[in-house]
């Protein structure tokens, strides 16, 4: 079942080592089908160089395994909370990529210092608080998802397709698994440049709002003119 | 038309990922023909690994597309302002390369800390101000070009073939597209070493003028003696 | 003799350059046999690209060479002290990997700033003191081992499979040579992210104990649920 | 003439891009023959990927070209001063490698923070002053060599096979061209780790003298026991 989605999710997972975003098995990608009944996710702890499309695990949104020989990623419950919270999210990525994780560990949101950031993410990339002892001890992964969803209540997931979980690492998403991986790459590059930028000028201020608006809307929304869509 | 120039500009574009200066499609190279009637530029948002010489777009200096199936780079208007400002400029590069962009985001010009810098760029690499709200909202890319041209009024473009645009990133140029890419590589390396250098010694001072003169004129002008040109 | 172990130790050694953990011959891996009578270690100063399984040196725990045409690694005496101290240790790695060595040189233990660290190492990664003049001048490598063993007295080697030796570099270990190399890779990544993290937020605090417990026990012990072991 | 030496110097030059020590043509290696009459050096400004053994230039110690179709490296006069100063030097390397150059630009000598450094270089790696205006304007490259030689008067070139020239970059040497390249690689790694180390602990102190002695003499001199030489 869902052979095409499995293949897409497999391919998206394989992009993580290709872009240098994962060490060992420290990452996972999922994608949801159009009816939003089932989603497909990487199996837990399986090496990328041994992965094949058939290893992908099919799950429902109640957390039941529908098909697959492996256990799903240990972060599956986080993915479920995000899929349930927004129909805009078609794919989700979790990594421990170096610079995004360094920001997450530092407990700081990433200010928007320039157009590389503004082209994809509108405003500062939020770092949500660490979970409480109770939230950690019971349903840890699900509570991670709930905390993200709580932060995004009333916000546009596609205008800010990334979040940092304090003391842990980043999640990104997009309209499908491929776009979620694209955003994970952007996040890592933006995180690295923001740290460099503060190193070069400790008093640096975020870019002005009008520049953020310009770059974001150059690529998003009905007046977008970047790329080939309108030609 | 302009098949040779298209091929040169294509090859120069392909050097950007080879030298690690671009992620995804975050860069573009153009080159102008000898009569300076038409220039050739990368299409907007097309992946480097799918690019071919025939994808290059031919434009005139009024911003009209002369030939090509794709939209030109969204930064085309910036390129035009530069070509119109100086006949010395035969090729132009824009990237979001990591360290040059980090300096641009920080809003600081890059001091000349040594001979690696002085061999190619005479003096500090300027960071021009962020555009005003009005300049951003209307003709953003063209105003970016105008701001650069305003800064370089009365200056020698080939003695300083690079500029940083605050909150955005670098542009470099040269006598042709290939040399513009060469300067983009130099800029990235110089930007990285300048940041490292300040990290190692927070009170570091720029190199003395006589050293800058020596290295720059060892490679440029009629008394140059680096390389094989005079043998 | 011990052909299978030699091959395992050879393969583990070859992972060091593959993961970018060694320059030239600055690293060595050993593994001990099940009876814990003999262990196999890389020869001293032999290039990785010329290494073969037959080059591995078989040693006993008194430091006598049992088989092999080469001298064993100059750090052999350190490996012996560790093997003698704990039957949990089946393989040992020493490297001069960039970030772990930078922390070792700085004389600081690596605080646990997040779950990447907590997934493998329980608490801060200790940096043991520099040896005294007497300890250095006589039996230097053996005293390095003794100092590590002294620190770990009463502690669980597998809960903290890494140590930094001040002014020198890291040692890691595991249930076999392969796992010891795995931990060397984790250590390098964790060391890099901890330095980044302090750069981004100079006042960063270690992750809370409950998060460390959660991640460590998600992967270790009888209630572990990461990966495929329980499926 | 000197076909074997040309080949060795060619091979040593090709190691510079392989180890990531040069961008474009920013480096050169030379080696001297046993009679110390002639030395062989890379031609100036020739791309590494077009270099062949026959391109090497044969020079005498008065700076006359003895054989070769190209101009020798523009740094030839610096190499000559070093060869004339010490018969211990059989090969010389100049690069603009990132971290060594960053230290050179910062004007600081590299303190010895650990055993990676101590294994190859005895004590802090000196940064010599910038040349005066007069020294720069006339015989710049030769004066660079003279300044290094002045610093090393009465010192052992092989105990400290590296120097940083302020605002410029490093030179390294060794008993032949291959060893000089080896030392250039060591220098770059040591320079990177020293900067990291100061970042992690701003109050870090150099390693104690007894540790430096131990590691240096473990590899050098008649009591050396690292590697296979004595087996």
What's the layout of helices and strands?
The structure is a homotetramer of 231-residue chains.
Chain A: H1 3-18, E1 27-32, E2 38-41, E3 57-60, E4 65-67, H2 76-85, E5 91-95, H3 98-106, H4 115-118, E6 127-128, H5 133-137, H6 140-152, E7 162-165, E8 169-174, H7 177-200, H8 209-219
Parallel strand pairs in A: 6-7
Antiparallel strand pairs in A: 1-2, 1-5, 2-3, 3-4, 5-8, 7-8
In words, what does this structure look like?
The structure is a homotetramer of 231-residue chains. The first copy, chain A, has helices at 3-18, 76-85, 98-106, 115-118, 133-137, 140-152, 177-200, 209-219; strands spanning 27-32, 38-41, 57-60, 65-67, 91-95, 127-128, 162-165, 169-174. With 231 residues, chain A is α+β, with helices and mostly antiparallel strands. Chain A has one domain (3-219): L-fuculose-1-phosphate Aldolase. An eight-stranded mixed beta sheet of chain A has the order 4-3-2-1-5-8-7-6, with helices on both faces. In chain A, helix 1 runs parallel beside helix 7, helix 2 (76-85) packs parallel to helix 6 (140-152) and helix 3 (98-106) crosses helix 7 (177-200). The longest helix of chain A is centred in the last third of the chain and has 24 residues, at 177-200. The radius of gyration of chain A is 17 Å and the shape is globular. The first copy, chain A, starts with a helix and ends in a 12-residue tail after the last helix. The mean pLDDT of chain A is 95. Chain A binds chain C through residues 23-24, 26, 43-46, 70-71, 74, 96, 98-99, 101-108, 130-131, 133, 136-137, 140, 167-169, 195, 198-199, and chain C through 113-116, 182, 185-186, 189, 192-194, 196-201, 204, 207-208, 210-211, 214, 218, 225-228, 230-231. Chains A, B, C, D: InterPro entries: Aldolase_class_II_sugar_metab (IPR050197), Aldolase_II/adducin_N (IPR001303), Aldolase_II/adducin_N_sf (IPR036409).
